[in-house]
Design a protein that fits this description.
The complex is a heterodimer of chains A (about 280) and B (about 600).
Chain A lengths: L3 H7 L2 E3 L10 E9 L5 E6 L11 H7 L3 E9 L2 E6 L12 H18 L3 E6 L4 E6 L4 H10 L10 H4 L6 E7 L9 H9 L2 E9 L1 H4 L5 E7 L5 E6 L1 H24 L3 E6 L4 H11 L2 E3 L1
Chain B lengths: L1 E2 L10 H10 L6 E4 L25 H17 L2 E8 L3 E7 L13 H14 L6 E7 L3 E8 L2 H9 L10 H12 L5 E7 L11 E2 L3 E5 L7 E8 L5 E7 L5 E9 L2 E10 L3 E7 L8 E7 L9 E5 L6 E6 L4 H8 L4 E6 L11 E5 L11 E4 L10 E5 L2 E2 L1 E2 L16 E2 L2 E4 L5 E6 L4 E6 L5 E4 L13 H13 L8 E2 L15 E5 L5 E5 L12 E9 L2 E9 L4 H4 L10 E2 L9 E5 L1 H21 L2
Parallel strand pairs in B: 4-5, 4-7, 7-9, 8-34, 17-18, 17-19, 19-20, 20-28, 29-33
Antiparallel strand pairs in B: 1-3, 3-35, 5-6, 10-11, 11-14, 12-13, 12-15, 15-16, 21-25, 22-24, 23-26, 26-27, 27-28, 30-31, 30-32, 32-33
Classes of the chains: A alpha/beta (about 280), B alpha/beta (about 600).
Amino acid sequence: VLTASELTLLGRLDLTYRRPQSGLYAGERRSPRSARSPEFSDFRPYVSGDDFRQIDWRAYARLEKLMLRLYVAEEEACLNLVVDSSASMALGEPAKWPAARRLAAALSFLGLAAMDRVQVGTLGGGRVPPLRGRDGVSRIWAFLAALEPSGTGDPDALRQLRWLRPGVTVLISDFLVEDASWAAPLAALAARRQEPVLWQVLAPDEERPTLAGDLKLVDHESERARELTITPGLIADYQRALAAHRAGLTRASQAAGGRFLFSSSADDLEATMLAGLRSGAVRRG
Amino acid sequence: MEFLLPLAGLALLAVPAIVLLYFLKVRRPEVRVSTLMFWRPFVADRQANAPWQRLRPSTLLFLQLAAAVVLALGLMRPGLIGAAGVDSTTVVMIDATPSMSATDVGPSRFGAAVERARSLAGQLAPGQQMAIVLLGDHAQLLAAPTGDAALLREALDRARTSGTAGDFAEGISLANSIVTGRPGGSIIMLSDGHSRAPTSPPRVLAPFTYVSVGGTGENSAIQTMSRASNGAVFLRLANYGRTTRDLRVEMRADGRLADVLPVKLEGNTTADLTWSRLPASTQVLEARLTPDDAMALDDAAWLVIAEPPHHPVLLVTSENGFMQRALKLRPGLDLTTVKPADYKPGRYDLVVFDGFVPPGKLPEPALLIDPPAGQGPVPLGGQIDPGAVLPADPRDALLRDVSLKDVHVQSAAGVKVPAGWRPVVSAAADPLLIVHEGEPRDAVMTFDLHHSDLPLRAAFPLLVKNLLDYLLPGGFENQVYAPGQAVGLIAEPDARWADVSGPDGHTTRLAAPYPPFTATDQPGVYTVRQQLASGVRLSRFVVQLQDPAISRIVPGAAPLIQDVERSRGVLPRGTLEIWPWLIAVALVALVAEWFVYLRGR
């Protein structure tokens, strides 16, 4: 799914979690809990029952008060990757599906490399059980490689994904579903302590359509048709509507404590990751 | 209001055609997209599955119909009768004399004159009209009075220089007929002053403006090239300019350079050259002046060296030394002279009967001089006193280079010109020389040469030469003609057809009765191939400019005219055409339609 040079690129990147993550096992993500670890966090006064070994005697010498030294707990985080494998993802020039699959593979690699618990599934319901460590890379990639775009991508399907654990949920999709609202499903995710990251992948000809003249446009998922005479004015209308749609997705994701970003199916992985860096979803490791 | 081009109303058929297109469902190619959510339907687009749909009001439809109707109305050229004043009609006369081809002004004098006329056409204001007259051998109306600049420009595109000097009198006559009844008319002449001047200044019925075209008069020419009996080639060169010129004459034998003769010619002088190095078996000799000058037409001369076929000619006369000597001047003529009593019919290409007509059928062709009354092909009447001798038609080819100014005839026989004959030389009332047009070629001179001073004039041998050209089969062979001059091609009696090839290679096929060949605008050697029963007979003639009046290209003075009192009346009212405004309205409708289409609303 990814080439050696792309893996080298990913080796220099890491995922960004806005909130400290609490997991079952120790990991590399900052936890809301305190624990013994090399990373100092804070001091607090000694209370009865505390571990004597954590008393900072140097602080006692200066303050003549017993102070306990606290350390940051590092635990695993949970990365939920939801890929939209609806039929519309097969469209575009170049097609969106290979770009979305490559993006999912890259993000899963970043999560597994950071010892996060990574789950990958589709809006339709198929998924790979939670995996941890680099050993899981091959299983996730095999799952992604076996997927083919089909069906529809209904936002309400997000509510049905019971396998999502608290953590970051990255939804990779074109978000082109007619008469659908993403606000309510995203709010539901937030209620389940999910930090939603909406990553939109569109083809260049969907961002700047090159169509012209008398055409019959057919929705690839719903098979609904609309006959249009496409003019520069109509193209401008299209671009305005797309910008408004993205603004709506941004508002919905921010309301749910998450973020929205987009990349092009024509981008290579480096350009795609740059989009992640710009939005803060990815950082340099 | 009237429509000047009502037939263009057929363009209104576009209206039902546009409506029909709106009834028809557009067959659109199918494109699959990820979503339709951003494609908002355009008002003009409707979803329908039938090939026909109900017509609904549409801004586009309205604008398209409006543009079609207005365009159709514009094409019909509506005009408001009497709304425009025809304030002037300009007749532009363009001189097409060969000297107008001089290139002392760019691209040539003629080109500059045409450009000037084109500019005048472009400056026509509404209501003004312009006509174009081309002064060639005859005046030609290139464009009747019109205000349409496009028509005038199209007519000017057809204008070409002529082979002979323009006829000013004919041009003025044509221009007068145009401006008659148009009080606001005027005449503009674009010329270099070399058109043929009439004997008396013509009357001009409108203000006349002469615009001189041309710069310098620097030009040199080959005036004459001929071959003497000893085989030497004689050349006369002329420098019509003021400056001394170092010239070279290239002598080409059958296209191959044979010699170059350097000549230094002072201004307004001539020089004679004799050249005797003519290669044997040369068919055509060409002499060409270099370097080039303002007029290329007179820089070359040709001489057909090939021996013309010999013509047996019989002169039947008691005693006529004048005619005998004139006939002998023509090379290739085997002349036999007999007394009338000794006359016997034989195989002759021409028989000249002087004061005698044989009984029975006349041999063909025949020239009859002073036939006895009641004899010959034309009934002659009693004796008349001819008085002044005049050309019947000064442009008659038989009178080429023939001046009848000092010719007198003491007495002649009266004759009425029968059908099929034409007079060549006339007295006040009766003709003196008539020729039969077509076959058989005959000519009748109605007076005794001894009763006239014609044989003593230079005109006589020239007239005889011209008559021989006309009467003898192949009389044109090896002869030199002026550009634009009609050449009478007398073919051999058994010729099926004759192909005439010009210097540019263009070939014209002529067949009996062999009308005069008129496509002689290009100087050079013309080849005539006669298809005989026994094979092909090849002969040539030459067309070249040897007219000093035209070669002297210094721009001349304005021609003399008679100004007459012009009538002053109310200017006529013309029709104001409103199609430009209609086209503008249609353009606005189309721009609006395009704007609505682009906006998608």
